[in-house]
Specification:
The chain folds into 3 domains: 138 residues, Glutaredoxin, CATH 3.40.30.10; 96 residues, no CATH class; 55 residues. The chain is built from 15 helices and 6 strands. The longest helix has 30 residues. The radius of gyration is 23 Å and the shape is globular.
Length: 333
């Protein structure tokens, strides 16, 4: 009898104890955040990012300037984003506090806010990093400054590039059957119009099987919801003056859905913003800021001071000027 009580107690402790940290070589649990900042597209998922090297950078707001190692992350992003590296910042801090910080800083990668992944991924400290390989498995993990360039380059071998249609990419949940495989591969590349043409053709035919019709209906609804979400994101990014994200979404939707009714809202919004002088100035300034950052990583701070001062003088009230002032002040101390 005593043995049974001991066994029952042991099982209870196992069930109640937290899961161990996910180790190198294991498949991670899903990505999850309440809000994504500096981002446009369907919420990042492990399925959608498979084939790329993903650096999940956990941070909390305490001692963020000294322990988050954002300068290293900016360098990695600048050097390797075009090679298939995706950096995702993850924090459980309140949205307002993160927005306030990001308004002053020039983080070039997406940040997931309000995440519970510190618990689900068993993150052992306030500042931690988990890197996923192209196979979707954990490639490395450690403190937020534990990754070095050589190891990252090794992990990037064979990685896919996101490409210009990154914000349009869609990986719908569920099983759609073998007959939808080609359509789903197109959606993974952001080919929304091509996918809609296929499923609308299937729905129009009387000879389409019930299984194929059901899958086509689900894909059509998923694409429609995706476009609606992109337009909602666009307005939120516009409020934050993240104008390059707005430009990317509008360019992507109006190009891909140029002949489809689902692209009409994007076409109308693009035309409206094209007449907005303040928006156009913000876009012009944002592109100049991106060029400044490229020059900074190539030639260093001192050789770009004049360029920064010119940007601040030319576009004094823009978001880009604000980011330039913060960049300028941080590096001139």
């Amino acid at each position: 009898m005593g043995g049974m009580r001991f066994l029952s107690l042991a099982l209870s402790l196992i069930l109640l104890s937290p899961a161990r940290a996910q180790d190198v070589g294991e498949e991670p649990l899903p990505l999850a955040a309440k809000t994504w900042l500096n981002y446009a597209g369907a919420p990042p998922s492990l399925a959608e990012l498979r084939g790329r090297t993903v650096m999940v950078h956990f941070f909390r707001m305490k001692d963020i300037t000294t322990k988050a190692h954002f300068n290293l992350m900016r360098r990695f992003h600048h050097d390797h984003a075009d090679k298939g590296l995706v950096i995702l910042g993850m924090t459980d801090a309140p949205l307002a506090r993160v927005e306030e910080y990001m308004a002053k800083d020039n983080l070039p990668f997406a940040v997931g806010v309000g995440t519970e992944m510190f618990d689900t991924w068993r993150v052992p400290s306030d500042f931690h990093q988990v890197t996923l390989g192209t196979d979707g498995l954990i490639y490395a993990r450690g403190p937020s400054n534990s990754m070095w360039n050589g190891k990252l380059l090794k992990g990037l071998k064979g990685a896919d590039r996101l490409g210009e249609r990154a914000c349009l990419r869609l990986v719908p949940d569920g099983d759609f059957g073998r007959g939808s495989a080609k359509t789903l591969r197109g959606l993974e590349q952001g080919e929304l119009a091509k996918a809609l043409k296929t499923v609308e053709g299937q729905l129009a035919k009387d000879t389409t099987t019930p299984e194929t019709r059901a899958a086509a209906q689900r894909i059509q609804e998923a694409v429609q919801q995706h476009v609606e979400q992109l337009m909602e994101q666009l307005e939120r990014n516009l409020e934050r003056r993240d104008v390059l994200l707005v430009e990317a979404v509008l360019d992507g939707l109006t190009d891909d859905l140029a002949r489809h009714a689902l692209g009409q809202a994007a076409r109308d919004r693009r035309e409206e913003l094209g007449r907005d002088e303040d928006f156009q100035l913000e876009v012009e300034a944002a592109h100049d800021f991106e060029k400044l950052m490229v020059a900074y990583y190539k030639r260093g701070y001192s050789k770009n001071v004049a360029r920064a001062e010119k940007l601040m003088e030319k576009y004094p009230d823009t978001r880009a000027a604000e980011k330039t002032r913060n960049w300028y002040q941080q590096r001139s101390l």
